[in-house]
Write a structure and sequence with these properties.
8 helices, Rossmann fold, 7 strands
């Protein structure tokens, strides 16, 4: 397991998990939000974003944080060994997004680009609430289309996440 993608709803814990997994495996963590967003939460154009993603995953090993389905998921899936899907209840994801947006603003998060401070808005809350309806099915459809040979692990509780990270070796 040298090329891993971690996906899940905002607030599911995917960034924390990706960082821990990257440390355990000794692999760099690629935060797709950092590659996509420009200062002031300005969106990247698709060709330049895809070029940055390709450059970031050119190496032999990495852990990708996020999917950007419909834009760059096909690129990471084509090279991945493993897809980890963090499936947490939406109430928990919503609570975590609200908490970090309102109270945990100190310091720069590693998964946010410079010039893009933590913020909260109705659109973000809506995305979290509708993740299982809007995003998860698209991610699954792209996985089936572009990465049907990629091993998938679904983790839905702290116990499962901790057990996965504590495993002595990872394999198929």
């Amino acid at each position: 397991m040298q090329r891993v993608i971690v996906v899940g709803c905002q607030g599911s814990g995917k960034t924390t998990f990706a960082l821990k997994l990257g440390r355990k495996l000794g692999l760099p963590v690629v935060h797709l939000d950092v590659l996509y967003w420009r200062p002031g939460w300005t969106e990247s154009d698709t060709p330049s974003f895809r070029a940055r993603v390709l450059e970031a995953i050119a190496g032999d090993g990495w852990v990708v944080d996020g999917s950007f389905s419909g834009v760059a998921f096909d690129l990471t899936l084509a090279r991945a060994d493993l897809l980890i899907v963090i499936e947490r209840p939406r109430w928990l994801c919503l609570w975590r997004v609200l908490w970090r947006s309102l109270f945990a603003r100190r310091g720069q998060r590693p998964d946010l680009p410079e010039g893009c401070p933590e913020q909260i808005d109705f659109g973000l809350l809506r995305q979290v609430w509708r993740y299982d309806i809007d995003r998860a099915p698209r991610i699954e459809a792209e996985r089936l289309h572009h990465g049907s040979n990629v091993l998938v692990v679904r983790l839905s509780s702290d116990r499962e996440i901790d057990a996965f990270l504590a495993a002595r070796r990872f394999g198929r």
